Amino acid sequence: MLRNISRAALRTHKTHRPPWNHHHHQKEAVPISPPISQSSSLNHLAFFSAKSKSKQKTAGNNKKGNNQNDNNKKGNDQKPKEKPPKPASSSDDPSSSPAAVVFDERASRARLLATDEKNPSLDLGPKGRALFTSATTLSQLSRKDAGTYFNFSVEGLKAALPEGLPAGMEKEFDESMRNALLVRQSFLDLRDNFRRVVDPTLQSSSDKGVSAKKQIVLDGLVSCGKSIVLAMLVQWAREEGWLVFYVPRGREWTHGGFFYKNPDTGLYDTPLQAENALRDFVKYNESYLKQLPCQIFDPVPLGESAGLGKKKGDQLVPVPEGSSLYDLVQMGINDTHAAVGAIVRLRKELSLVKDVPVLFAIDQYNNWFTFSEYEEPITMRASRPIHARELAMVNAFRSMMHDNMMIGAFSHSTAVGKLRQFLPDVPADARVNLPRYTLDEAATVSHYYVRQRLINREAFSEESWKKIYYISNGNGAEMRGLAPLIQ
Question: Is 150 helix (H, G, I), strand (E, B) or coil?
Fold first, then answer.
């Protein structure tokens, strides 16, 4: 009886096998996982492929290691076969890399140029004319020096232009391996123009009937030398004892950093740019600023600082009587909350200075007449670009409708687009076009590159240098790039 009950219970609890798990050729069915889709199977394999390979590799290495240990145990006196030495390729030699070749060429050229310095007969330009001027300062240059090269000292340049040199000037110095620039008639005209503004008695016979301009916008084609001419003008003015507010990179005033809308002015403040501009201004002009007293004693308003927001308490900083312009600049440097207010006040103070000539020199000036990098959110998904005139710093320094001396150079390499002929806040006759190299200037430049071994002297001819002049259309940077191709 009990035996029958047990057999019935076993038949009732027998494991159910699905039809897809039936193996008719096997006595016992082995339970396996149900089938999965092709894609999930591939994913499963891809996910574990790296691990499985590493496991197999590890197992293989362990197996090899065990075999090797067994072989070592069997006979330690058997030496492993040595691989033949790999032949050295030319690519493995660091001296054959392009950088090393260029370095060797420059080093060799530098040695030859040092030897050439002892041979003054090489310092000849077109038609046997002297290639270098004997003038030692930019103030000594006369119209007779036009078309010659002026030698600069690195120390003098860094001292006169601590804000930084233009990229084109640094490139010219590097590739020619000499700190010299061509004295162009356009530079002499600009220099003499501002000379006559300060001292009208310096009017020459050739300048009769030509009135001096206090405000100039320097325009011209790409790589015609606008930034270099402006930098030379700034150095000359500082050598003359002028107070120069020089901005070598005007684009930086409209790009990057922190910005916010000041509710008191309705303009956008950029405190980081303001602090950097004040630091640059004080580098060369510290001694002048300490001697010039403040003439406006209204408190300087505070704003926000990058990442810190507004200060608690009073939002005005008093300007004590007896303060100098140096104290005003230091106020903005030491406290970024006051940086924008200090530089806007500085612009007003500089317009009142009468003891020393003041010149505002702005490179990349065209960036102040187009849209900035900043945008104002309008909705959750929309924003509007902020124009440069809406920035407090640009708004304070952009206008030329005043009685101060000011020159702004356009920079078409920054690609802000073509601006209209007549600009707002700029006199109608302020624009001056700087030409590219003339044929005579190109002849001098080509002879200079021969002197500096940028052009092969044996292959140099009038036909060859005229070819690169006409191909480049007088573009200075392109002429310098094509010069080594004369072989």
Answer: strand
